[in-house]
Amino acid sequence: MKITQIMLAKGFGGAERYFVDLSVALAEQGHDVQAICHRRFCERARLMKIPALQIDTFSPLGWWDLIAGKRIENSIGRFGPAVVHAHLARGACMAGRACARLGIPLVAKTHNYVDLKYYRHVDCFIATTHSQEQYLVRQGIAPERIRIIPNFSSQPPAEKVKTSRKEPMQFVTYGRLVRKKGFHILLESFRRYLDQGYRAYLVIGGDGPESETLREQCRALQLEPFVTFSGWVTDIEDFMKHADVFVLPSLDEPFGIAVLEAMALGVPIIATTTDGPREILDTQTAFLVSPGDVELLASAMVDARDDLLRREKASSALRLFRNKYSKAVVVTSLMQLYGSMRDNHEIR
Q1: 3: which residues sit within 8 A by CB, 6+ positions away?
Q2: Can you give the pTM of this predicted structure?
Q3: CA–CA dist 326, 91 (Å, integer)
Q4: What pLDDT was estimated at residue 112?
Q5: How far apart are CA 250 and CA 273, in angstroms?
Q6: Do residues 44 and 73 touch, judged by C-beta distance below 8 A?
Q7: Percentage helix, strand, coil, to 5, in the chain?
């Protein structure tokens, strides 16, 4: 099938990772894929390494850039996809106008709780969670125009979970270093964990505007001997290979692809009950705590020292990943949706 994926952001977060992983996965399955991205998209080089992908780049000034919009429309028209899949507001807005004129069905993935003024020409919305689906319905989108299809991780599932705990333990976390990710809460909790007499290390992967603030907090808490800031993570499996526990301390997390990667690798998880992790995980698959609660997070880190409990939760999470969040399962669901949209459009 001919499929266009479009995402016009320049930076890199969960939505951008999904766009790249999905474009690559579809091309690997033998589909004819056009990936439209910003000329300065930070992961453009990774896309360029896939010969089967047709990469078209643009530099729109904003969703209102009519010249760039016309160029994108011409690019989609020349490629002639059966369906266009848009990611994030700018991509959905510019693809929407183009698809309306070209007569091509458009699906848009809501990576968060989106402003629907940018999604006016969407035929089908993909909600990542039930919470996002309910939000769309409250905004007036008919339920029959919504499909719930979760994110996936391209990380192949491990054969078994990590089974041994070493001393000192190693907790790991990663993501964009921004306030809502809750890394400042994790540092406070880790200090309280150490103050109980336990030995451990914490590795924080990622980069962002809170980087220096977190380093200053680390110094103020006298955590420098125990905390490592490793910078942006490009090889998740390598980063996690020495992890005893993965921690997601987010204050706001609409989904959490990092959780899927920990599940796939068989690494035990501590996560906050924000929207995404609350839908993915339960007490059988992870240690769950309320967001922003320093004491509860420190207590969960202590609970995670129990080898048997950690192994049981990680095993359940790995099974769940294989059955629901693996690349094979999710991409199959997407292809079924694309085929249905193509067929229904042809009937009309």
Answers
A1: 26, 31, 32, 33, 34, 81, 82, 83, 84, 85, 338
A2: 0.86
A3: 25
A4: 85
A5: 9
A6: no
A7: 45, 20, 35
Identity of the residue numbered 240: M
Distance CA 268, CA 244 (A): 7
Q: pLDDT tens digits for 295-330?
A: 999 999 999 999 999 999 999 999 999 999 999 999
CB 182 within 8 A of CB 174: no
Q: By C-alpha distance, which of 171, 298, 287 is closest to 240?
A: 171
> Token pair 């929407």 is at which residue?
96
Asked whether the predicted pLDDT for residue 264 surpasses 60, the reply is: yes
Q: The sheet that has 227-231: what strands, in order across it?
A: 227-231, 200-205, 169-174, 245-248, 269-272, 287-289
DSSP character at residue 325: I
Q: What local confidence, expressed as pLDDT, does residue 347 receive?
A: 46
CA distances from 108 to 126, 152, 194, 230, 332 (A): 6, 16, 45, 34, 17
**142, amino acid identity:** A
List the single range of 236-240, 253-257, 287-291 with lowest mean pLDDT: 253-257
Both tokens of 162, joined, read 């990590």
Judge contact between 3 and 85, C-beta under 8 A.
yes
Average pLDDT over residues 24-51: 94
Q: Which of 166, 204, 201 is nearest to 185 (CA)?
A: 204
**Local structure of 147: helix, strand or coil:** strand
- Tell me: pLDDT of 119 over 70: yes
Q: Under 8 Å CB-to-CB from 183, ≥6 apart: which residues? A: 173, 175, 177, 204, 210, 214, 249
**Residue 229 scores a pLDDT above 70:** yes
